[in-house]
Design a protein that fits this description.
With 206 residues, the protein is an alpha+beta fold. It is built from 7 helices and 9 strands. The chain has one domain (2-199). The two termini are 20 Å apart. Mean pLDDT is 88; it is low at 19-23. Keywords: Signal.
Length: 206
């Protein structure tokens, strides 16, 4: 029930704090998203505990904009080594980490048209903080966040290396992106074999 309450409150926050600022620069949208989140944390602290310190967030600075993409499951099922670019979507949004003392305090999601689409994603916050120090030291530059539907997993891609907590993997340890994609393909095929008919009938939610 507590998780449901937090989920519902997060939806309300998103609906009431969307930024339609197409004439503003992306940097201004990011800064306003941060300030709005600080205000939300301060005004709701007696009702909800989001696990984020508004003071720490206020002192944080935005790191590099991380491109968010998704893997195309149909292409993953047919993957034959053609490279990651052939099976992932174009940029869908940007994830902005706010960092204080090498720790990710919070993240927001924005689109280039000038709109905040997502606030308070604890998974991004926790996993980005766990990535190797060399990635954090460069402010997450050149990192992509790639979501794998059906398998419901997140991969942090850095050129030909990837980091993920999928199946209990240590997110600090790099794995070849090609090797990981091959493993994901096998699991995606198993998922498709088991649940493919239900997906077609619309009876299975991801």
């Amino acid at each position: 029930m507590k998780n449901l309450t937090i989920y519902i409150s997060s939806l309300i926050i998103l609906l009431t704090t969307s930024l339609h600022a197409q004439n503003d620069s992306l940097e201004k949208v990011i800064e306003k998203g941060k300030n709005d989140l600080i205000e939300i944390l301060r005004t709701s602290k007696d009702q909800f505990n989001f696990g984020i310190s508004p003071e720490a967030l206020e002192q944080s600075k935005s790191a590099s904009q991380i491109v968010y993409k998704e893997i195309n499951i149909k292409r993953l099922l047919d993957y034959n080594g053609q490279g990651i670019d052939g099976i992932i979507s174009k940029e869908q949004k940007l994830i902005i980490p706010f960092v204080n003392n090498s720790k990710v305090i919070a993240t927001i999601g924005v689109v280039r048209s000038g709109k905040v689409t997502e606030l308070i994603n604890h998974r991004y916050r926790n996993e980005l903080s766990e990535l190797p120090n060399d990635i954090k030291d460069r402010g997450f530059e050149n990192i992509n966040i790639v979501y794998v539907p059906n398998l419901n997993t997140i991969v942090y891609m850095d050129d030909n290396k990837s980091y993920t907590s999928y199946k209990g993997r240590n997110i600090r340890e790099a794995i070849s992106t090609e090797k990981l994609i091959t493993e994901l393909k096998v699991d995606a095929q198993s998922f498709q074999k088991k649940y493919g008919d239900k997906i077609k009938e619309g009876k299975l939610l991801n």
